[in-house]
Amino acid sequence: xxxxRPSTAATLLLPALLAGCGSDAPTPxxxxxxxxxxxxxxxxxxxxVQLARAVDALFxxxxxxxxxxxxxxxxxxxxxxxxxxxxGPDSRFQGWSMSKTVTGLLxxxxxxxxxxxxxxxxxxxxxxxxxxxxGEISVRHLLQMRxxxxxxxxADPVYESAExxxxxxxxxxxxxxxxxxQVLEHAPGTTFTYSTPTSxxxxxxxARVLSPDGSPEERQAAVAGYLQTRLAAPLGLRSLxxxxxxxxxxxxxxxxxxxxxxxxxxxxxxxxxxxxxxxTQVLPxxxxxxxxxxxxxASDYGGTLWLNRPSGxxxxxxxxxAGPADLFAMIGHLGQYVLVAPEQGLTVVRLGKTxxxxxxxxxxxxxxxxxxxx
Length: 374
Description:
Elements: H1 8-23, H2 34-38, H3 48-60, E1 66-74, E2 77-83, E3 92-94, H4 99-112, H5 139-143, H6 162-168, H7 175-181, H8 196-210, H9 216-235, E4 241-242, E5 256-259, H10 260-271, H11 287-292, E6 306-307, E7 328-332, E8 336-341, E9 346-353, H12 359-371
Antiparallel strand pairs: 1-2, 1-9, 3-5, 4-5, 6-7, 7-8, 8-9
């Protein structure tokens, strides 16, 4: 029986069909550059090439702002470290709102010392007058950003924003007095309102405890000395520095500075539940658990820490759909992050400058770094 010859149409289509089959194979990603690989340890505890690509993307990808420092610790060891030109391991970076967590640690130490109560009326003299409803605000409320005061963060126009008015406008000479003078907008404990002035109130409370009736100079010296002896020295935080206003109040909502390695050390002591790398119990037992306990008024916020949980509404700060449920973070203005994933033994530090519009892309890039350790 004679063989049937293929039709002219089939003959013409055959090269295109073969080409189409070949194009189905995914193009392998380009190998990471020598610079990208040089930032990664030889044995990072995960795929080295994947980690190099994820870290490199934070420095080279468009639309995520400018990364100036990147540090990844796995089981306490630095497995990735990279800096932009002009920055290095000795460069101090402003924490912005990551400073709130430092303030939270300060408060925890004072409570452990028996010098401050977590519940009951917060010791703010202005609020203790008879009939003042602000007398119901507790230290726990302030830590969880549910004090109820009229502190509108990120207002429009920006010069009406609470943090701007307090730090640079009519409150700049006595920030705590300005923050504490605001009226109640919600009943204490009922509503989450993220607020830089709230952390300054906590800083003022700490100064009042450590230096009752002290001068501005005495207040500043008392708080700075306490932070040094109880937190910085035990953790080896040689760069940790805070700014103070004219009344000697630490600007505990925004003005704490440290190097990338020291920000990582703060993340590590949180990951280790208050225990330093040396084995010393630096933070009170159970305090980190309290910081990681979700506020009754916000499922994605604890006590000065953000939690990797759905927030509801328009706010989504981290990546609950793409990251471990136990992940938590210190987060600051312009894209400052210290991410901690305890089950993965992971601490990730990113410092730089990213505007609000680019923050979602930055968060996705950070999620990619964490995902390398799944």
